[in-house]
Design brief:
The complex is a heterodimer of chains A (about 150) and B (about 350). Chain A is mainly beta and about 150 residues long. Chain A is built from 1 helix and 8 strands; from the N terminus they run H-E-E-E-E-E-E-E-E. In chain A, about 10% of the residues lie in helices and about 30% in strands. In chain A, the strands form 2 sheets. Chain A has a 5-stranded antiparallel beta sheet with strand order 6-5-4-7-8, with no helix packed on it. The longest helix of chain B has 15 residues. The chains are: A mainly beta (about 150), B alpha/beta (about 350). Chains A and B meet through strand 4, strand 5 and strand 6 of A and helix 5, helix 6 and strand 5 of B.
């Protein structure tokens, strides 16, 4: 029951959000600063610094306002190494999705970690931001992280 | 509280790719089978509730077409959740508690084979900090697995042992996609797909549908199957951002279980059906729910043997119902999850009537 290919109806389909939105006062400010290569966390009422900033403390629902400047340095906690990136990753070389804790922040966050191979990664290693060449006020303005071992932190 | 019982369950075969039938066509015979098991017709059903995901089908409001599977008449009060159908069951259970209805037919369905499910799942993540990185579901589970390894509680060998058990138990499940005798020694030789996860640590892409019928005790059907009562049910959610949570634990599961136990007054379970789509999550849940070795975990093989996206949680209720039908054991724990890395968890305590 094979039908000739030319008789099949086809339509393009792009997977993704088909609408735009305002990120709001806290996330918006954070993303605007990121475009200028400035990194901010946000202080919770218990004194801990959350990164990336959220309008509300996800643990207590308290409203947050107190931005805290952070550097582009952090530590690698744990990761998954991806030998064969998927098309949507938009990364052509093997890389890791990693939980990274920025110096001065009290919680880790997810981003990309670049290295020649998984063997070059270790728990607690020093890492630094690799900025995207073109920045547009998005979390991807941080292209990913690379090793900062042997550098002054 | 009104006493609510599961009275019927049916599931299509959990196939890797259904090439001919569409979602409605997969669903129709499964609805018929469930109604037949309960000796009910659509006239006996007060409410219909479904769980599915438009992102999987690739079209807005695609779930509406599935209503065709119910037939045009009699017209029914109907609802849908863009969640696993276990939450459609929860909505139905609540509606029975309000006294508005006495019976409900719940269904879930999905044809994951038509797209790239791991990429689709990345779009359930928050749109500012996570989704732009396209963290696919396997990679996120890989991070959770690596967080679990970092605690020293388990090894990659333990992940493989979960898979061995799943495949072995699935040998008695005719709808299983993956079953048989495999050795952990052999499995552990496979390459990583998202370290420390190997292909076998991940649930298989599956097409299919499932249907479950619940009624109030006053409206039990006259079928010969024994009812299985939902004695306790609760669901709890954790923060979405992965860094806020302890990924190697499942605090929301622990809390939901405590609440369900309070409702049920039942402390021990003969079996547990856990919705753990990745093998390390079985170990995380086992610890979070304090399940000892006397509990038969995933007698159906669980999601590693077949995983109908959007119905795999409802299937844990269904498979528990089946297990309680066919054996002398009395109590079961059914678990469902939603969101990345076990963000949101439901626990129900079931007892054979």
């Amino acid at each position: 029951m094979t039908e000739p290919r030319e008789n099949l109806l086809e339509a393009d389909f792009e997977l993704g959000f088909t609408y735009t939105r305002s990120p709001g006062v806290i996330i918006g400010k954070f993303l605007a600063a990121l475009q200028q290569q400035q990194i901010y966390g946000i202080r919770a009422n218990d004194g801990t610094v959350l990164f990336p900033p959220t309008e509300y403390d996800p643990r207590t629902a308290e409203s947050l306002h107190d931005f805290v400047p952070l550097t582009d340095l952090g530590r690698l906690l744990y990761w998954t190494w991806i030998d064969q990136p998927r098309d949507h990753h938009q990364i052509s070389q093997p890389f890791a999705f990693a939980m990274i804790q920025l110096d001065g922040a009290d919680v880790p966050f997810l981003h990309r970690m670049f290295a020649d191979s998984a063997e070059h990664l270790s728990v607690g290693m020093a890492v630094k931001v690799q900025w995207a060449e073109q920045r547009r006020g998005a979390i991807t303005d941080i292209h990913g992280f690379v090793t900062a071992e042997g550098e002054q932190s | 509280m009104r006493e609510v019982a599961i009275v019927a369950y049916a599931q299509s075969p959990q196939v890797r790719q259904e090439k001919v039938l569409n979602e409605v066509e997969i669903l129709m015979p499964v609805i018929e089978e469930a109604l037949a098991e309960a000796a009910m017709t659509m006239d006996d059903i007060d409410f219909v509730c479904s769980g599915s995901c438009d992102y999987i089908a690739g079209g807005a409001f695609s779930f509406v077409s599935a209503v065709d599977a119910l037939g045009a008449t009699p017209s029914k009060m109907e609802s849908h959740v863009e969640m696993d159908a276990a939450w459609a069951l929860y909505e139905s259970w609540l509606k029975i508690q309000t006294g508005e209805i006495s019976s409900a037919l719940i269904y879930g369905f999905g044809k994951s084979s038509v797209g790239e499910l791991p990429d689709v799942m990345s779009q359930q993540c928050d749109p500012y900090y996570l989704a732009p990185l396209w963290p696919d579901s396997i990679s996120l589970a890989g991070i959770q697995a690596s967080a679990l390894l970092a605690t020293g509680r388990y090894t990659e060998r333990d992940f493989a042992d979960v898979v061995v058990e799943s495949r072995r138990k699935a040998k008695t499940n005719p709808n299983a996609q993956l079953s048989g005798d495999v050795s952990a020694d052999h499995l552990i030789e496979a390459p990583y797909i998202a370290s420390p996860l190997r292909r076998h640590d991940c649930c298989p892409i599956t097409d299919g549908a499932s249907v479950l019928i619940i009624t109030d005790k006053s409206a039990l059907p006259k079928a010969k199957t024994k009812p299985v009562y939902i004695r306790g049910i609760d669901h709890r959610m954790e923060a979405h951002q992965l860094g806020i949570r302890t990924l190697s634990e499942s605090k929301s599961s622990t809390l939901a279980l405590a609440n369900a136990k309070d409702q049920a007054g039942i402390e021990q379970f003969d079996l547990a059906e856990l919705y753990a789509p990745f093998s390390p999550q079985t170990l995380i849940l086992k610890d979070a729910l304090a399940l000892n070795d006397k509990v038969d975990i995933n007698p159906s093989g669980g999601p590693l043997a077949g995983h109908i996206m959007m119905s795999a949680g409802l299937d844990r209720f269904g498979m528990s119902f089946r297990a309680l039908q066919s054996s002398t054991v009395k109590t079961a724990l059914a678990h469902a999850t939603s969101g990345p890395c076990l963000q949101h968890n439901m626990i129900a305590i079931l007892e054979a009537g």
